[in-house]
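Figure 6 in text form: structure in, sequence out.
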């Protein structure tokens, strides 16, 4: 358990730091720009939660709040994985989305987090109400993305790099992401309780 959490933390951290270097040169702007993406944010959140879990496991059973943070971060990276598999992959091609560090951020990291939480960290019962905490990262990021892409001022506005506002259909995309995350919460809770 400790080893898997430390692996998640270390690999994610090293891969994120690699954004700051390009062709042997430091590129701080590129590294910070990567924080626009839910993919990067969800993986960094999971890395942080994994470090918390690893440290807590050295003392035995982790506190419930640490366990809940790990659960919420697991849902977040599961959202990343599912969005790539169901929505982005068919649009942009899976080859591009599973190249280099994206192979880890889109596939390997989320699957490791899922295995870690569902099969090695069964410390507390995961109630239906608690499972809905998994919606928090999507609500927060979705609201911010909506502001930066659709509602905010033109200056500093982001491109719709996820394509959620294509044809002005952001309300449908927002609802679909919330529903999809709800379903992931249900599935992860089911796996956890097996």
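Output sequence:
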């Amino acid at each position: 358990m400790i080893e898997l959490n430390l692996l998640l933390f270390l690999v994610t951290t090293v891969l994120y730091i690699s954004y700051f270097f390009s062709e042997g040169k430091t590129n701080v702007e590129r590294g910070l720009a990567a924080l626009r993406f839910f993919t990067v944010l969800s993986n960094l959140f999971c890395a942080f939660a994994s470090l918390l879990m690893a440290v807590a496991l050295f003392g035995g059973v982790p506190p419930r709040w640490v366990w809940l943070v790990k659960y919420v971060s697991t849902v977040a990276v599961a959202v990343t994985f599912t969005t790539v598999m169901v929505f982005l992959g068919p649009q942009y091609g899976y080859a591009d989305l599973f190249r280099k560090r994206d192979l880890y951020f889109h596939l390997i990291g989320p699957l490791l987090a899922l295995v870690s939480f569902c099969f090695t960290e069964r410390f507390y019962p995961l109630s239906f109400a608690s499972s809905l905490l998994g919606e928090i990262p999507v609500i927060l990021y979705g609201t911010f993305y909506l502001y930066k892409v659709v509602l905010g001022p033109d200056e500093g506005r982001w491109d719709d790099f996820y394509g959620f506002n294509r044809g002005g259909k952001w309300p449908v995309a927002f609802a679909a992401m919330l529903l999809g995350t709800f379903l992931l919460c249900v599935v992860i809770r089911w796996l956890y309780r097996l």
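Caption detail: The longest strand covers residues 21-22.
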